[in-house]
Amino acid sequence: MEYAAFKAATEQAGEALGRGDLSPQLARLWFDGTTVSAWDDNVAISVACPFEFDGGVLGELLTKLIGRATGKEVAVTTKGGTAIFKVGRSSLKLTVEPLEQRSFEMRDPDRAAAIAVEAKLLKPALGQILKCVGQSLEKPEYHGITFAVDGNDLLIYAGQPQVLAEAAVPLKSKPKSKFNYVVLPEKFCRQLVKHYDEKDSELTLYNATDTIGGGLLVCPTLTVFGRSLSSGRQKLDMRAYIDSHVKQAPAWFPIPKGLAGMLDRASLFEGEHHNLELAVEAVSGGVRLRITIEDGEAQLVDVSGTIKGEVEPVVVKTNAKHLRTGADLIEMCVDSKRIIMRDDQGDDGVCITQVASVIAV
To answer: 154: part of which helix (H) or strand (E)?
Structure first.
């Protein structure tokens, strides 16, 4: 097989390689003569790869060989339970597991469960939501991305109580079968951002309560499946949390462009002590907003802007790492418990809302 095509296919599939200490099968690349695939117990990736070889080999070792070797072709010879891969002058001998030992089968697409949404809307919105994915294992929705259908919108949200984000992306058409929600792995969603194109690919979402709930992305040369992190029996509290904060929020006011850029830069500060102070002050002719970012006693940034209107004066702090901006946020509201920012749901119909909890001043 041509070297560049083999390298591209194994690298793509290799993004789903898992930990061999959990199960040896998860650390293997599996060839079946037409595809190469991998499964890390949450995400499976299968890539077109017309290569005359069947079986599973240690993926990390093979991809290292392919990445360092130089040559025009990749060849393999098998003998007993071993295979020798050869590229140019480089070769590698690996133990082969029979294909029957592969611990997963890629789910077939179900057109009745397909979700029709424009890539130019879904991918940027999902990219913003991915910035808020948490790491807490307390609940699946705290370390995955939740997809739900609400009327004519596909709702996507992620985060933890300290920092939340939600996007509402308009559907091109409602799914033919009833869909409630599913919590998908971060790795699957990153593949979705990278490869989804509604003209050449199909996205299917299966309810978390299904026997095999999850998401399936089918592209011309690549298929990705993400298993639901939730069984569907857990109570989803994040959406209720967002709704309650937005409903209880005080008056909204516009964000000056300079401050919007500052908020975006603030999200790059990841240190535990990078605290952001937001002061809302009444001044002659309007309201003054001031943002200060500090690291311990050192002041890193101080920027302010003035807008028209009346807002209750308040001074609040949050950790800068709780901000995950980058969207075209144009308005916000602040009180002693939360900072909420959102865009204007412009011509694209996508509305992103972010909630950051306030820490003690």
So the answer is: strand 153-160
355's enclosing H/E stretch is strand 351-357
Asked if 40 contacts 16 with a C-beta cutoff of 8 angstroms, the reply is: yes
Rounded Cα distance between 310 and 288, Å, is 10
Task: Write the pLDDT tens digit of every residue in 40-86.
Answer: 999 999 999 999 999 999 999 999 988 888 888 999 999 889 999 99
What is the C-alpha to C-alpha distance for residues 86 and 74, in angstroms, rounded to an integer?
Answer: 6
* Distance of alpha carbon 235 from alpha carbon 47, whole angstroms: 36
The confidence score (pLDDT) of residue 14 equals 94
Three-state DSSP class for 84? strand
3-state secondary structure 222-282: EEEEEECCCCCCCCCCHHHHHHHHHHHCCCCEECCHHHHHHHHHHCCCCCCCEEEEEEEEE
End-to-end CA distance of the chain: 63
Amino acid type, 2: E
In the 8-state DSSP scheme, what is residue 2? B
Rounded distance, CA 306 to CA 44, Å? 50
Q: Whole-angstrom Cα distance, residue 278 to residue 68?
A: 50
Helices (H) and strands (E) in the chain, counts: 6, 23
Amino acid at 257: K
* Tens-place pLDDT, residues 289-303: 676 766 665 555 565
Instruction: Report helix, strand or coil for 107.
Output: coil
- Give Cβ neighbours of residue 211 (< 8 Å, ≥ 6 apart): none
List Cβ neighbours of 184 (8 Å cut-off, separation of 6 or more): 144, 145, 146, 147, 214, 215, 226, 228, 229
pLDDT tens digits, one per residue of 299-353 = 555 656 666 666 666 776 666 555 655 546 667 777 777 777 776 555 555 666 7
3-state helix, strand, coil in the chain (%, to 5): 20, 40, 40
What's the Cα-to-Cα distance from 13 to each of 16, 85, 334, rounded to whole Å?
6, 17, 45
> Of 25, 49, 23, 27, nearest to 36 (Cα)?
49
